Amino acid sequence: MKKNVVLITGGATRLAKEIAISLTENNYLVVVHYNSSKKEAINLKESLGDKCEIIQYDFLSNHTKSFFNDVLNIFGRLDYIINAASIFTKQGLDEIDDELLIKYNVIHSYVPLLLTNYLYEDLLKKERIGAVINITDAGLENPSLNRVPYYLSKESLSFQTRLLAKELSPIVRVNEIAPGLIMASHADKSYFSKMETKNKMGIGNSYDIINTILYLLKANYVTGEKIKVDGGLYF
Ligand SMILES: NC(=O)c1ccc[n+]([C@@H]2O[C@H](COP(=O)([O-])OP(=O)(O)OC[C@H]3O[C@@H](n4cnc5c(N)ncnc54)[C@H](OP(=O)(O)O)[C@@H]3O)[C@@H](O)[C@H]2O)c1
To answer: How far is the CA of 175 from the centre of ligand 1 (A)?
Structure first.
């Protein structure tokens, strides 16, 4: 039997990289998408060997259809997409402009929407089924005005999860994972250590997300669901 192929966007670094590694350990073939992290992507490919291929694409360059076709050609099939590529900067209402809002929406919502639709068209033609997992953020439960473009565009990704789950069923299942505090960036380190003691379940780790992904990839009767993986941070 042929192995299933997963595209993971933004997969050369941090959390999505850990997900990519784990998928190869669980019998999946992985296409790791990257934008600027070429060195990290090449290192990952070298360590994972034949189970992994890498592909570069800047989501802001408006060639998503040809990117999708290139992904499809790598292993000759695509079964699953994990939409993880993201940007995360602090901007209050007084700092935002058209360009920034468009950028966030393209990366977090428009490209995932196109990729999901292209996957649907391909699987429909080939009479196969697949799934998409959108990675959003548990912080959508309590968004802050510090990151207006981030929360607006992630909420749009969350909304499209439900919308597409209905439309694309039963060919493509579409689900959402909303992580809480999992992997701190440089700027977040002090906030994470404060929350480590404040949240009764502390900080999560990449396996908390990976286990949920492994479940959703195989959950053939589950679609349109959001699973918060946040150690009870937001109820
Ligand atoms: N880390 C956490 O604790 C946490 C918490 C809540 C939600 N999440 C979500 O989980 C996912 C993974 O988290 P993370 O912290 O590992 O993500 P991250 O470091 O913020 O970024 C993921 C990737 O997005 C890619 N990216 C950025 N701009 C792009 C563009 N213009 N075109 C294409 N790709 C682009 C980057 O690729 P290159 O490096 O190749 O440029 C980067 O590797 C994200 O969706 C994030 O929002 C994470």
So the answer is: 18
158 lines ligand 1 (CB under 6 A): no
Q: Output the pLDDT for position 61.
A: 97
Would 9 be classed as within a structural domain?
A: yes
Does any domain span residue 233? no
Beta carbon of 107 within 6 Å of any ligand 1 atom: yes
Angle between helices 64-75 and 111-126 (to 10 degrees): 50
Task: Assess whether the C-beta atom of 149 lies below 6 angstroms from ligand 1.
Answer: no
Please give the pLDDT value at position 2: 85
> How far is 80 from 220, CA to CA, in rounded Å?
12
The domain that holds 135 is classified in CATH as: 3.40.50.720
Q: What is the pTM of this model?
A: 0.98
Answer whether residue 234 is part of any domain.
Answer: no
Structural domain containing residue 136: 5-224
Average pLDDT across each block of 10 residues of the chain; the chain has 235 residues. List them in order: 95 98 98 98 98 98 98 98 96 94 98 98 98 98 94 98 97 98 89 90 97 98 98 92
Nearest CA to ligand 1 atom 24: 85
Does residue 13's CB lie within 6 angstroms of at least one atom of ligand 1? yes
User: Would residue 70 count as lying in a domain?
Assistant: yes
Q: Is the CB of 35 under 6 A from ligand 1?
A: yes
Quickly list H helices, 12-135.
Answer: 14-25, 38-48, 64-75, 98-105, 111-126
Number of domains in the chain: 1
